[in-house]
Design brief:
Shape: elongated
Low-confidence stretches: none
CATH superfamily of the largest domain: GAF domain
Structural class: alpha+beta
Helix content: 40-55%
Number of domains: 3
Mean pLDDT: 85
CATH architecture of the largest domain: 2-Layer Sandwich
Distance between the termini: 86 Å
CATH topology of the largest domain: Beta-Lactamase
Strand content: 15-25%
């Protein structure tokens, strides 16, 4: 096949996805994935696009109000030519996009990352993408997660196609059913041409009709099983179960959908989605009709999607932990501390409760790094993190505030309680077996008062006390206001 002919066929396939198979737009299928992609990558906008020969169609969008663009200016037209993630870190410095209307317009697209979405046949038909008006660089975890989400989006759209194909086929079958009474030959011709396994039974459970797909599946002739009941075809347990279900459907008067595991003539087990429904012959006798579709591959894909979902949940949990944890010490980081500070300060003011802060700095930390190396400095910080975690009360929040500074938030604790904890910390630092030389710390303490309007002011008071402790000779605790505890 020529390259041009292959491109034309792929363009037609993309048009089918964009304009026919997925109409109406699949917001319910992929909007969660789009929002999650933008959130994890930290970008302003996420979207899902499909491309035909001439245009790019935005089928799902989070924060991007546009329906389509010409294909020639679409970033996604580059992305679908790749096999993996396509990233433009800064479009202003990229010769392919610097003059693009989407870059020179307002607001400009400065950053783009897109993961191709593929059909089951391996044709790229669109992308899951994120964009921003500022240059960006994705972390390896963000890039990997965007690729996983792109594959999940493709799998969801593929399942949507299969469902729609099944729905369309069933609708066509319902339309044709009205003409079956007029011609048994037309009925048989239609059913035999159908890709579905189909059959009809009478009230006694005897097979009145089955199509070629049914015969092929079980390795029998077109008429061999006519007139036979389940008892003559299956094992006792299976036949009793099938008969009970058939009677339940006929009594209920409605279509029932089930999944069945069937062993074929080749001995291979497969999964079928079965639709059973009651109907009547020309004399008014109740019959049972059924069609079944082989969904073995769909079930396998669902299982794979489940694995993808589990991996994604694990990745998200890890990201949540990293967002609020200092990797070196294992304590909460500054962001987590300040979020908790806002809540505790508000509660203390509203309920007239005490609140205190200890701000601690390692004395002469730069000399440790200079004399023994950064690994030695890191070891000091890790030990202090462990020391704080095992010294504070359960409601207290110790955190690494930055560099060699640590901070402790003490809910419902005033000056006396905060000083008591500061003394215990100083005692444990003095008693600790340090690897290179004896370590000391300086601590500044501040407690809640009515003049404060926010928690950061409380931290600022503790910071002033800390610097006072440094000026007073280090290795001591200083209360805001001048009192020294050595």
């Amino acid at each position: 096949m020529s390259v041009r002919r292959a491109e034309t066929e792929e363009a037609k396939l993309r048009a089918l996805w964009a304009n026919e198979v997925l109409d109406p737009a699949p917001e319910a299928e992929c909007d969660e994935i789009v929002r999650l992609a933008a959130s994890i990558c930290g970008t302003q906008v996420g979207f899902l696009t499909l491309l035909d020969e001439r245009r790019q169609w935005f089928r799902v969008s989070d924060g991007f109000k546009i329906e389509s663009t010409p294909r020639e200016i679409a970033f996604c037209a580059y992305a679908i030519r790749q096999t993996e993630l396509f990233v433009v870190k800064d479009s202003f410095s990229d010769a392919r996009f610097s003059t693009n209307p989407l870059v020179s317009g307002e607001p400009p697209i400065r950053f783009y990352a897109g993961m191709p979405i593929y059909t089951p046949e391996g044709h790229a038909v669109g992308t899951l993408s994120v964009i921003d008006t500022q240059p960006r660089v994705l972390t390896p975890d963000q890039a990997n997660t965007l690729q996983v989400l792109g594959r999940q989006a493709g799998a969801r759209l593929e399942l949507r196609m299969h469902r729609k194909a099944l729905e369309d086929a069933l609708k066509e079958k319902e339309k044709a059913a009205a003409g079956l009474k007029a011609s048994e030959e037309l009925f048989r011709s239609f059913m035999n041409a159908s890709p579905f396994l189909s059959y009809i039974k009478d009230a006694a459970g005897r097979l009145l009709f089955y199509n070629k797909s049914f015969a092929k599946r079980f390795g029998v002739g077109e008429y061999t099983w006519l007139g036979r009941t389940d008892e003559r075809l299956w094992s006792p347990n299976l036949s009793r179960s099938a008969r009970a279900h058939d009677l339940e459907v006929m009594t209920g008067g409605q279509m029932v959908e089930t999944e069945e595991h069937i062993r074929g003539a080749d001995g291979v087990n497969s999964t079928w989605r079965s639709f059973k429904f009651p109907c009547h012959d020309s004399a008014g006798n109740i019959l049972l009709a059924g069609v079944a579709v082989d969904v073995t591959e769909e079930v396998a894909r669902k299982a794979e999607l489940g694995r993808y979902h589990h991996e994604l949940e694990e990745a998200n949990e890890q990201l949540r932990k990293l967002a609020v944890t200092d990797v070196l010490t294992g304590l909460k980081n500054r962001r987590a501390f300040e979020e908790r500070l806002v809540m505790e300060f508000s509660m203390a003011r509203r309920r007239k409760r005490e609140l205190a802060v200890l701000l601690m700095d390692v004395d002469n930390f730069k000399q440790i790094n200079d004399r023994f190396g950064h690994a030695a400095g890191d070891d000091v910080l890790r030990k202090l993190g462990t020391l704080l975690r095992t010294t504070v009360r359960l409601p207290d929040l110790p955190a690494r505030y930055g560099g060699e500074e640590f901070i402790v938030l003490l809910p419902e604790s005033g000056e006396e309680g905060a000083l008591g904890l500061a003394r215990r910390i100083m005692e444990r630092v003095a008693a600790e077996q340090w690897n290179n030389e004896r370590m000391t710390v300086s601590i500044g303490m501040a407690a809640m008062n009515e003049s404060l309007v926010n928690g950061l002011q409380l931290v600022a008071l503790a910071d002033e006390a800390l610097y006072a402790a440094k000026r007073a000779g280090k290795n001591r605790v200083m209360l805001h206001g001048g009192q020294v505890e050595t």
